[in-house]
Amino acid sequence: MKQLLLAAALACVTATMAQADINIKDAYARASTPTAKSGAAFMMITNTSDQADRLIGASSDVAKRVELHTHIEKDGVMNMVHIEEGFALEAGETIALERGGKHVMFMGLTQSFDDGAQVPVTLTFEKAGNVEVMVPVDLKRQPKHGMAHGANHGEGDHTN
Prior knowledge:
- This protein has a single domain (2-136), classed as PCu(A)C copper chaperone (Immunoglobulin-like).
- It has 1 helix and 10 strands, in the order H-E-E-E-E-E-E-E-E-E-E.
- The protein has one helix at 2-20; strands at residues 22-30, 38-47, 53-59, 63-74, 77-82, 87-89, 94-97, 103-109, 118-125, 129-136.
- A hairpin with a 7-residue loop joins strand 1 and strand 2 (38-47).
- Residues 1-18 and 146-160 have low confidence and may be disordered.
């Protein structure tokens, strides 16, 4: 019994230490309109550990489906695609989840994204495990590179 309790305590400490190695900054979420069926979250994710990790998933109760997406140009058209393998995050590296690039996609919103509200998101990493983030909704923020995120498409339509 003591060994079981010790193993459980060690697992909790290890998970907490791994989460401390992931730093989330400048997070925000948005949808194109109050009645939109989809939205997205953007943020800067830094791996402060000395080993590589990978963001492999995301979840939230604000949508029926949550996926990791990016935009890929094909034949001169930007297409939004689900990245099943997730996003690599090398030791000491920061990756940007930003409009027009990598992002967390919410499909089938179960609530409206009201400016100033908070969206709970769980990011899942291969090594760090689950990292809980409260992401503020910011409908006023403009894209840094002049590229809008087409968040008003249906669940099956992933083109911009």
